[in-house]
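Example record

The entry below shows one chain as it appears in the dataset: sequence first, then structure tokens.
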Amino acid sequence: MRRIPELDFLKGVLILLVVGFHLVWFEQLHPDIKQVVYCFHMPGFLLISGYLMNISKPPRQFLRTLLWLAVPYLFMASGYIYVASLLPIADHIDCLTPTVFLDRLLLHPLGPPWFLHALILCGAVYYYIYNNVRQGMATRFLLIGIAYFVFAHGFGILSFSSAMYFLAGAVLRQSGTDFVGFFRPSWLSVAAFALIIGFAESPNQASLSGILIAFTAISSLLWLHDFLPLAPRTLLLFLGRNSLPIYIFSPIFTVLCKGFVPFLRFDGTGLLFLLVSLAVCVGGSLLLAWLTDRTGLSRYLFGRHALSM
């Protein structure tokens, strides 16, 4: 499937929000903004992932696709589990045993790696059912939804609301609906977004208000794509094309950015801390991605060159 610039732009904005709201001090300063952003930043990635996942590949090629999600997942999740056993972070592990390690690695991931775990599981179920059940599209998607429900509520290894955003993207793809056309970029979406967050009480990605926030936020960002000057739009397109290595490597730098807090605490808004930290996190992640590219490790981590120009 050819690259869609609007989706790369959308991913570029979303990855900055993901990194920004993994900066503990900043998110603690702005809990209300965090609550709104959490309604659409990862749901946006899940929608795009479901839309772009190509299940028309032969089984061997699709397994290869899942492999190139599994390799960075195992790298990222293993590191996060180890760090969680050492540092007093929110996901701290008091006693790291082989059983705990395998549980957190294979079934119940901690922190940011959950997204890749969800993609692998959602993608595998989507591919198998859609290509092996000889029924209409509606029946196949119903069965996929039921499978997600069982994994979520029967086994507790998947977020059902997250899986539904992935499934929504898949439905758009299989129905032949244009992603950008469905969300209809418009300035009216900006007004609707502001109106909803003004009246919504405790929105989350599974609530009706959260779903409306996600829809209007994505529509608003796609509308913004056509109005930004060339330089920032080009930068966001580049970040969107390389959102995976940024997502994988940025936790290393978000931890290090805690060291900036004593020096930047004078800015009560935290915006200076955010800008400095984003530059460090994104720049550092891209540098590591470039190094893996130059050393050939990107072939094993990503199945391709890490940086996409």
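Notes for this example: The radius of gyration is 19 Å. The chain is about 75% helix and 0% strand.
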